[in-house]
């Protein structure tokens, strides 16, 4: 035994909320202790039914909710669950899943294909770092099928609303993509009245379905490692059923007792058992143990019960297992023990619980619907030999599909060998919209997809769920819930929320939404974090991270504005504090010179990045020569949409089949609408509401026209490039100047020269070769510099 692992990670494990120790949690705990891991602890309750087994490991068992449990919980490197988060979490009065920073390894305890579950990657607020599976097909279910109940409800509504043909009892990721492309095509062609909100929902469902590959541990179940030590004795014919609520009552009309009577009345089953010298045995679920006396009476005492405390003896003694849908059948498959599935209530089971099998006959064994069918099968000549032959075939199927068999524990050891470092973003409102929050979400979504633990801490919560598409694998926390005028806050929190903030400067753009409540919670959460990368996204929060974080953390400043756009007091605070951060990130080279000239050092530029959407959208088919120009932005003076409309009016009469669609809302909308009418452009120019389908609208256009007077970065430019669409723009400073290359990926006009801009749009209208060449180069610019993996690669260099 290797007893040299003195500095191993701190792991907490348990089962059934600390009430038992006999499943995967205990199997893995025992392995860790026997292999010299000093810092693995089992959390137990005083009334744990397996306390004798645990007493052999006194140094490494901890009473649940003790001071030691609470102390180690906040220091833990991993929390290993068998049944649910209450296995290892102390009993907190509220928001338990917001407590602590340790990632979760969910060992789980069954075979998912046999019983439909609604556990998905957003469970436990994105804290599940690893979710274990056993079989390759089970891994596919977890990666491409698992959804929350609310997501299933949403997709069923869309299927029904648009009469989409779908016969399966569940949807897969590829089905969602097919539905999306089908509806998007109808949206473009206007064949059906497809609503924008439904396309948005489908995009969100595609992101939410299934666990990320990097979070699936196809390692198998730790308890299966013991199967190699089982010596088969084949003494019993075992009946092993799951339980139903109605089975818990002790009256004679209990449907379970009726099933037992049918078995007792089956001469074929009893004769088969007698012929092969097999004892009739029942394994009763813990919820129906109270029916044991009733079963004795039904069988006149000629019955045996499998022990609850020693399942190994059950595996050894069982010659044939008759079950309903229990995943314990998997253990018997691995021991070449024949299994008969008695689906006596299959229709009800499929409707109420369901499974991920294509057919009930895909269960690995003989499938029947009635006790009479069991009797008929067992009465056939050589039935026992045929059952054993089928069991051998099923064993081979399972073994070939079970990658981690006999090496599960070593597999898990390797996965949790090193600490997981948290990357934690702090932003003003992750539930709203805007360039900064979109940038944070883009980075967070990609980081979790490549194996990082990511948290977004939002200073405010303004809606039930985020407007933008956050991958549910990202942990999301908030400090001040401002919904419903404080309905979700305590009286004390409501009082604190009315007091002005002392930690933020009053000239901060977002100061009106901050309060003393935000201050207190922000400092508290910062001081709870260790060994992490903390990323601030606006000056006030960055300065508070620098002042209040302990030195085990690395502070990264993401500055989204030019230095001179800040107030004088914030400029002074930036100069005083930013140099104490590990790194300052700005969006452009132009911003670097601004900050350097004001004494801010250790600075680099990393642009905003976006995920590539073209591979999905292109499934709808190529959209060329739509005779459509698009533009996006707030309808405010800075965006200068009046100049865009004026410019288009110069060429509109010449090209009556061309349209200009502007998406946005704001104070200048009445002025712009009036301008369109006066210029007689109502048939060619539309002011459309803000859209969540920016990529879809760009893809369904020929090019994008943007006329802002200034942009710190300009996400829409990059979004257009990502779709392979060039941009027509003015030659403004800062962000766009870095990536707009005239005659390469865009056409650029002298600032605010509407006639020149009109001539550039006309060139693209008339010259398809130019349009194609600029589009190809726009796409190339995006892939090389702004595709999210390239941007995050540079971000991670800063974090190391």
UniProtKB/TrEMBL annotation:
The keyword Disulfide bond does not apply. Coiled coil: none annotated. One of its GO terms (molecular function) is CDP-glycerol glycerophosphotransferase activity. Keywords: Transferase. InterPro entries: Glycerophosphate_synth (IPR007554), Glyco_trans_1 (IPR001296), TagF_C (IPR043148). GO terms for cellular component: membrane. Pfam families: Glycos_transf_1, Glyphos_transf. GO terms for biological process: carbohydrate derivative metabolic process. Residues 622-780 form the Glycosyl transferase family domain. This is Transferase. The lineage of its organism: Bacteria, Pseudomonadati, Pseudomonadota, Gammaproteobacteria, Enterobacterales.
């Amino acid at each position: 035994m290797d007893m040299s692992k003195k500095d191993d990670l701190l792991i907490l494990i348990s089962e059934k909320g600390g009430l038992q120790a006999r499943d995967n949690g205990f199997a893995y705990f025992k392995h860790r202790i026997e292999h010299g891991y000093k810092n693995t602890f089992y959390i137990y309750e005083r009334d744990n039914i397996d306390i004798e087994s645990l007493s052999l490991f006194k140094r490494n068992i901890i009473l649940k909710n003790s001071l030691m449990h609470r102390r180690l919980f906040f220091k833990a490197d991993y929390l290993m669950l068998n049944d649910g988060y209450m296995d290892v979490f102390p009993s907190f009065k509220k928001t338990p899943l917001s407590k602590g920073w340790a990632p979760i390894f969910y060992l789980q305890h069954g075979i998912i294909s046999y019983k439909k579950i609604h556990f998905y990657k957003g469970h436990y607020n994105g804290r599940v770092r690893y979710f274990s599976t056993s079989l390759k097909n089970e891994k596919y279910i977890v990666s491409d099928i698992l959804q929350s109940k609310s997501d299933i409800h949403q997709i069923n509504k869309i299927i029904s609303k648009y009469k989409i043909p779908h016969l399966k009892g569940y949807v897969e990721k590829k089905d969602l993509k097919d539905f999306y492309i089908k509806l998007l095509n109808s949206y473009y062609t206007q064949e059906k009245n497809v609503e924008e909100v439904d396309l948005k929902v489908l995009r969100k469902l595609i992101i939410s379905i299934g666990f990320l590959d990097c979070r699936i541990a196809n390692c198998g179940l730790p308890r299966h490692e013991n199967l190699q030590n089982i010596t088969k004795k084949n003494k019993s014919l075992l009946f092993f059923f799951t339980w139903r609520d109605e089975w818990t009552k002790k009256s004679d009309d209990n449907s379970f007792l009726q099933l037992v009577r049918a078995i007792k009345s089956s001469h074929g089953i009893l004769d088969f058992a007698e012929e092969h010298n097999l004892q009739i045995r029942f394994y009763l679920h813990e919820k129906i143990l109270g029916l044991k006396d009733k079963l004795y009476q039904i069988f006149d005492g000629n019955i045996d019960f499998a022990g609850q405390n020693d399942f190994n003896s059950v595996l050894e003694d069982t010659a044939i297992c008759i079950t309903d849908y229990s995943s314990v059948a998997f253990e018997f498959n691995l021991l070449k023990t024949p299994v008969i599935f008695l689906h006596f209530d299959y229709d009800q089971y499929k409707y109420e619980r369901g499974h991920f099998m294509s057919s009930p006959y895909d269960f690995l064994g003989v499938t029947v619907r009635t006790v009479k069918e069991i009797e008929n099968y067992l009465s056939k000549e050589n039935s026992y030999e045929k059952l054993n032959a089928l069991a051998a075939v099923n064993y081979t199927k399972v073994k070939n599909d079970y990658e981690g068999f006999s090496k599960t524990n070593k597999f898990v050891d390797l996965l949790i060998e090193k600490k997981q470092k948290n990357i934690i973003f702090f932003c003003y409102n992750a539930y709203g919209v805007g360039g900064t929050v979109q940038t944070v979400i883009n980075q967070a979504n990609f980081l979790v997809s490549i194996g990082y633990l990511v948290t977004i801490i939002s200073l405010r919560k303004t809606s039930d769920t985020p407007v933008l598409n956050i991958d549910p694998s990202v942990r999301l926390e908030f400090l001040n819930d401002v919904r419903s005028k404080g309905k979700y806050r305590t009286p004390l929190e409501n009082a604190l929320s009315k007091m002005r903030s002392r930690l933020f400067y009053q000239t901060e753009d977002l100061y009106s939404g901050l309060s003393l409540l935000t201050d207190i919670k922000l400092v508290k959460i910062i001081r709870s974090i260790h060994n992490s990368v903390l990323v601030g996204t606006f000056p006030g929060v960055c300065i508070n991270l620098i002042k209040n974080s302990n030195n085990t953390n690395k502070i990264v400043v993401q500055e989204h504005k030019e230095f001179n756009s800040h107030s004088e007091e914030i400029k002074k605070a930036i100069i005083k504090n930013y140099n104490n951060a590990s790194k300052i990130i700005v969006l452009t080279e132009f911003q670097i010179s601004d900050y350097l000239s004001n004494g801010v050092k250790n600075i680099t530029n990393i642009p905003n990045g976006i995920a590539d959407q073209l591979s999905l959208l292109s499934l709808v088919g190529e959209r060329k020569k739509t005779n459509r120009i698009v533009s996006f932005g707030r309808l405010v003076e800075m965006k200068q949409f009046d100049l865009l409309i004026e410019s288009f009016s110069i060429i509109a009469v010449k090209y009556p089949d061309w349209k200009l669609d502007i998406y946005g809302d704001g104070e200048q909308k009445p002025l712009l609408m009036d301008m369109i009418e006066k210029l007689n452009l109502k048939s060619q120019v539309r002011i459309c509401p803000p859209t969540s389908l920016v990529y879809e609208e760009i893809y369904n256009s020929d090019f994008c026209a943007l006329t802002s007077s200034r942009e710190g970065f300009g996400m829409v430019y990059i979004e257009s490039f990502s779709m392979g669409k060039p941009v027509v723009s003015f030659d403004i400073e800062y962000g766009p100047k870095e990536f707009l290359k005239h005659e390469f990926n865009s056409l650029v006009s002298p600032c605010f020269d509407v006639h020149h801009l009109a001539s550039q749009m006309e060139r693209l209208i008339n010259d398809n070769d130019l349009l194609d060449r600029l589009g190809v180069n726009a796409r190339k610019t995006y892939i090389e510099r702004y595709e999210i993996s390239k941007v995050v690669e540079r971000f991670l260099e800063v974090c190391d």
